[in-house]
Amino acid sequence: MEATNTTPNRPPYGIIAVLMIGAFIAFLNNTLLNVALPSIMTDLDVETATVQWLTTGYMLVNGVLIPATAFLIEKYSVRRLFLVAMTLFTTGTIIAGMADVFPVLLSARMVQASGSAIMMPLLMNVMLVSFPVEKRGAAMGVFGLILMFAPAIGPTLSGWIIEHYDWRMLFHFITPIAATILLLGFFLLKDKKEKVVMQLDLLSLVLSTLGFGGLLYGFSSASNLGWDSPFVYGTIIIGAISLTVFIIRQSKLERPMLNFGVFKYPMFSLSSTITIVVNTAMFSGFLLLPIYVQTIRGISPFESGLMLLPGALLNAAMSPITGRLFDKIGGKILAVTGLAITTLVTYLFSQLTMETGYYYIMFLHAVRMFGMSMVFMPVSTNGLNQLPRRFYPHGTAMNNTLNQVSAAIGTALLITLMSIRQEQYTAEALGQLTGQPSADVQYQIMLEAMLGGINDTFFISTFITAIALILAFFMKRAKQAEDPLEEKQEQVEKKVKPELVKS
């Protein structure tokens, strides 16, 4: 099977199955580590700002490498890319499991990330090529199940492992599974690709690295270092300038590393915009709810994870159903319905109190995730469906890159907003007191100020999701656009065939 060839009569289910299992392990590994960060801090004697690099560094490597995957997918076979990706991921996992000092663990995580970055765009491209437009929703729904199920069970599984074993067991647990998948890929993947003469434009790679890497680092560091830090605004400025030059250069290259021509197709542009907006707002739930239940309500991390589990499982279970509905009714109805639910529940989360019930929060989160399940896959699939076949690698790479950047921006903006409002509420409360308040009074003021900041942040997130809801009304069921280059190639082939017959 070739990544750029015509859609086969029968999809290569064996290849897809191997790729999906590999992607599942990569996604699972990413969510497993979050719960283990406190244990790693204690064991390796590092600060919070330092240990966060295990997450930030992973995200940075993904953000830097994903834009280059469009070039890699066009040049190399699925087999070759998968084996390289899984080899990197497995090697990183083995080294991480043996790490005794933080620099070794961080390096291992980045090696893991370099493999993981190739996995998702590769799988999405194979899915697009393997299934016709009318069956693509169901196929992408199954892909969504894999994508959502790993984060659903990750925190709970990680919590159980950390309670009973050393944090290194998280990597020891993944290693044999990753090695088995690597062997399966070696023996089962047989696709070949004709040699493609393509050269990677090194200047584009440098500009892409500085552009996306600078934006990701700047926004992801803002919540820790503050917006007035030169490392924050400096890297954001460098990233923005580099990205601008990168985009200009891509428009002038005959074979760009990442083709921004995908934005000439209106449904792809609209789907990208909706995805960015929703990504910016959706992290309010993932970030703020654990802060609320653990810091303000005093609920344990394990119970906090259990509270979020039903919503994550519901989101995963809905993905195949949403995919089939997409094939029947299109993405607009699903997106509008899902965003309406998400907007309403996000507003309800802005009304939290000191006594809000545990199961009420669990219910609201589950309903919010139910709404989300009708948004991401239908919206992104509808946008990708409009692209001509040769744009698939660039469309998938662009989608994944925008997801990384918008998630970092959303996280930074929401945390900053919460911190600013918390400080304002604290100052107002202390200003109304006479004399020096006791430690208990100060602590109570801090909790109430934090609650006010969380509620205000959810309220702003409500408006952000409402913007996405309005944009969803402009969606139309996408049909694959005609490609002038493909038509020109077909005309050349038609002229050449009669001449070959005559000769």
UniProtKB/TrEMBL annotation:
- The residue ranges of the Major facilitator superfamily (MFS) profile domain are 15-480
Q: How does it sit in the membrane?
A: Multi-pass membrane protein
Write down the SUPFAM superfamilies for this protein, in alphabetical order: MFS general substrate transporter (SSF103473)
> Residues of the signal sequence?
none
- For the keyword Transport, the answer is yes
Q: Which InterPro entries match?
A: EmrB-like (IPR004638), MFS (IPR011701), MFS_dom (IPR020846), MFS_trans_sf (IPR036259)
Report the transmembrane regions from the record: 12-33, 53-73, 80-99, 111-131, 138-157, 169-188, 200-219, 231-248, 268-293, 333-352, 358-380, 457-475
Residue segments, region Disordered: 484-503
Q: Say where the protein is mainly found.
A: membrane
Q: Cellular location of this protein?
A: Cell membrane
Q: Which domain of life is it from?
A: Bacteria
Alphabetically ordered keywords of this record: Cell membrane, Membrane, Transmembrane, Transmembrane helix, Transport
Q: Which PANTHER family match?
A: MAJOR FACILITATOR SUPERFAMILY MULTIDRUG TRANSPORTER MFSC
Write out the similarity annotation: Belongs to the major facilitator superfamily. EmrB family.
Q: Which NCBIfam families match?
A: efflux_EmrB
Name the UniProt record assigns to this protein: DHA2 family efflux MFS transporter permease subunit
